Amino acid sequence: MSRREDFDNALWSDPDFLALSSAARMTYIWSWTNPRCGMAGIYKTAPVQAAMETGLSEEDVRSAFVELGEANFAFYEGNVLWVRSRVKHLRQKTTQIAKAVRNDLAKVADDHPLKARFLATYRGHSWLSAYIGGEGQVTLTRPIADSPGGDGHVPVLGTGTGNGTGAGGKRWGPGKGKQPASIPPSDAAVAGVHARLEADAELAAQFPDVALAHVKHAMGRIVNAGEIATYAAIRAELDAA
């Protein structure tokens, strides 16, 4: 279904945006306006899709993704693209929008590093915290069709025939028919997210003078070349960039 996209033309006055290459600017505009981008601004895609829809070459799109990451506009990793400020620039911050953000996030694996970064950025926002987990929580599992239960977890559709009582009162619990039940994330999912965050923190500590996104892109280039990403190799890659 088509949708009118609320795109702020003040972007053309942003010196950081104007400093990008023309391919990166085109790719960034595409990242907001293509039909896969929802309210959360995080979604599965591939460079070949962007290439077909923008008219750029796939190589130019891949380079643009790297450039956008280095400039802190958008990040691409593991077939997932995150447009960092998509949620920040939402004009309306309603319950329905919060649900849409939650459902978009649920389409991305819980242990994906970009989901962890999204949570670290937005879970402290009061209008979203009940839907994506409050401060200090990692609570994202599946898309649903109703509002969250009383314990802050993301509910999923229940299939039981209980009396409708549970952690959230009569509205939640095993329920009857399609009443949602609140289910916490698995230990493995939580551990995976925390492991990613710890690895990022360790990497940032090793290269305190360089933005983490730059370091990770340098590592990616080294690994893609079939080499081992040692400290010396990463530093040399950064210095050569």
In short:
This protein is mainly alpha-helical and 241 residues long.
Tag the structure with descriptive keywords:
241 residues, mainly alpha, Arc Repressor Mutant, subunit A, 4 domains, three-stranded antiparallel sheet
Give your account of this protein's structure.
The chain is mainly alpha-helical. It has 4 domains: 9-83, Arc Repressor Mutant, subunit A (Orthogonal Bundle), CATH 1.10.10.10; 98-141 and 185-204, no CATH class; 150-184, no CATH class; 207-241. It is 45% helix and 7% strand. Strand 2 and strand 3 (80-83) form a beta hairpin. The N and C termini lie far apart (41 Å).
SSE order and pairing:
Layout: H1 15-18, H2 22-33, E1 42-44, H3 47-54, H4 58-70, E2 74-77, E3 80-83, H5 95-106, H6 113-122, H7 126-132, E4 155-157, E5 180-182, H8 187-206, H9 212-224, H10 231-240
Antiparallel strand pairs: 1-3, 2-3, 4-5
Helix pairs in contact: 2-4, 3-4, 5-7, 6-8, 9-10
Share in β-strands: 5-15%
Low-confidence stretches: 135-176, 178-182
Principal-axes shape call: globular
Query: How are helices and strands ordered from N to C?
Result: HHEHHEEHHHEEHHH
| Total number of domains | 4
Q: What top-tier CATH class of the largest domain fits best?
A: Mainly Alpha
- Count every beta strand, where a strand is a DSSP E run of 2 or more residues: 5
Q: How does the helix and strand content classify structurally?
A: mainly alpha
Q: What's the end-to-end separation, in Å?
A: 41 Å
What count of helical segments does DSSP give? 10
CATH topology of the largest domain: Arc Repressor Mutant, subunit A
Placed side by side, the strands forming the largest sheet appear as 1-3-2
Average pLDDT rating? 78
